[in-house]
Amino acid sequence: MSNLPVEPEFQQAYNELASTLENSTLFQKNPEYRKALKVVSIPERVVQFRVVWEDDKGELQVNRGFRVQFNSALGPYKGGLRFHPSVNLSILKFLGFEQIFKNALTGLNMGGGKGGADFDPKGKSDNEIRRFCVAFMTELCKHIGADTDVPAGDIGVTGREIGFMFGQYKKIRNEFVGVLTGKGLSWGGSLIRPEATGYGLVYYVEHMIKYATEGKESFAGKRVAVSGSGNVAQYAALKVLELGGSVVSLSDSQGSLVVNGEGSFNAEEIAIIAQVKVDRKQLSEIASTEAFSQKFKYIPGARPWTHVGKVDVALPSATQNEVSGEEAEALIAAGCKFIAEGSNMGCTQAAIDTFEAHRETNAGAAAIWYAPGKAANAGGVAVSGLEMAQNSARLSWTTEEVDARLKGIMEDCFQNGLQTAKEYVTPAAGSLPSLVAGSNIAGFKKVVAAMKEQGDWF
């Protein structure tokens, strides 16, 4: 490994998967899978390119563009595009690696990939964003296709950016196909797609609560801490409210809004925050307004976990490594019983170790139960897969049909991880099964079995 570049995010994702495989009976029962791990951890293809565009002053700008086509054993590469100044190859490899197994857990025919650019859409005009998207897609279109690689949105890539890129792809390739997901509803998009990751996250946690409490509890009456304020956080919060829970926090990169006392965000307040994000502004700009200042406290430069008081559920939904080991300890001390990642790799390894140790040493509902993003936040890519299916058939399904399919997929994700954990990881007496181990093993087994049948390893 000494000849490889330093890639801390990818190394963290790899180590998290590899360690759970090692600490299970998988390699004892299937020793040949060790060499499969070596193969699956290397991308099939990495595309890197320059993106040259002009700003509104007519000045030349240049960014780096990427697409990591990690694994196509189960179907076309599938994974989002991220536009953010932090984007680099390590982050995209970690995201693409996670995407392989997340997509496998959905049960849909999708491989894993990820891409993006170190372009920052904040502070840019619509015309600057359009010119960047056109330049980006002019190169990316050579490497993607409806049956090859189907990107979606991610951080910094909303329906606006998807529209600009789709239009450029159509102009260059002279074909109207489902090459991107997250499209507008009038030209191939799917209902429920914006809501899917947040809704799916809550549906997944519903099954966690039901299993851990033997059906005695639900979201009703639960205090739920949420981080982030983008699509995932917004729709997770709205679904929690719909199911009778209270949402006590939202946040962004500059700070956190936390409810004073026993209250909750309501749908109207979440709608105001959604508009703030559409306008590419920060929560700090509304924190001091009359509508928010009396009900909420704003904590600049802080994540919400140590400021929310007693909570039952935590849903990190902002970005990677947003829950540290110390914050994990604080959540346990605050009475949190369920934590599930709406973001990708939302918890540091120290946090995961803290949650898993608590689960192993406490019986059943007395423990905190952790669910990894590759299972808990699979709803977004699941509905992207459903959008692909609708595009292939030139059909549009109803909200009710898409939502029902999403609920079924999230239940399958939960049950698959749960049952796999029971098979390969013997829990301590009375403790809950490890969802992180079960999800990792289930996704890994499905992918490498397909790779073997296709001759990628033997």
Automatic annotation (TrEMBL):
Cite the entry's keywords alphabetically. Answer: NAD, NADP, Nucleotide-binding, Oxidoreductase
The protein here is known as Glutamate dehydrogenase
Q: Where is the active site?
A: 114
Against Gene3D superfamilies, the record matches this protein to: Glutamate Dehydrogenase, chain A, domain 3, Leucine Dehydrogenase, chain A, domain 1, NAD(P)-binding Rossmann-like Domain
What Pfam families does this protein map onto? Answer: ELFV_dehydrog, ELFV_dehydrog_N
Q: Whose protein is this, by species?
A: Penicilliopsis zonata CBS 506.65
Note the InterPro entries from the entry: Aminoacid_DH-like_N_sf (IPR046346), Glu/Leu/Phe/Val/Trp_DH (IPR006095), Glu/Leu/Phe/Val/Trp_DH_C (IPR006096), Glu/Leu/Phe/Val/Trp_DH_dimer (IPR006097), Glu/Leu/Phe/Val_DH_AS (IPR033524), Glu_DH (IPR014362), Glu_Leu_Phe_Val_DH (IPR050724), NAD(P)-bd_dom_sf (IPR036291)
Q: Residues that bind NAD(+), according to the entry? A: 197, 231
In terms of PROSITE patterns, this protein maps to:
GLFV_DEHYDROGENASE
Asked if the keyword NADP belongs to this entry, the reply reads yes
The entry lists its GO molecular-function terms as: glutamate dehydrogenase (NADP+) activity; nucleotide binding
Q: What is one term from the GO cellular component aspect held by the record?
A: cytosol
Family statement drawn from the similarity comment of this UniProt entry: Belongs to the Glu/Leu/Phe/Val dehydrogenases family.
Q: Which CDD domains match?
A: NAD_bind_2_Glu_DH (cd05313)
List the residue(s) that the UniProt entry marks as the site Important for catalysis. 154
Binding residues for substrate, per the UniProt record? 78, 99, 102, 153, 384
Domain Glutamate/phenylalanine/leucine/valine/L-tryptophan dehydrogenase C-terminal stretches: 190-455
**Which GO biological process entries does UniProt record here?**
glutamate biosynthetic process
Q: How does it assemble?
A: Homohexamer.
Transmembrane feature ranges? none
Q: What superkingdom heads the lineage?
A: Eukaryota
List the catalysed reactions. L-glutamate + NADP(+) + H2O = 2-oxoglutarate + NH4(+) + NADPH + H(+)
Q: Does the keyword Cell membrane apply?
A: no
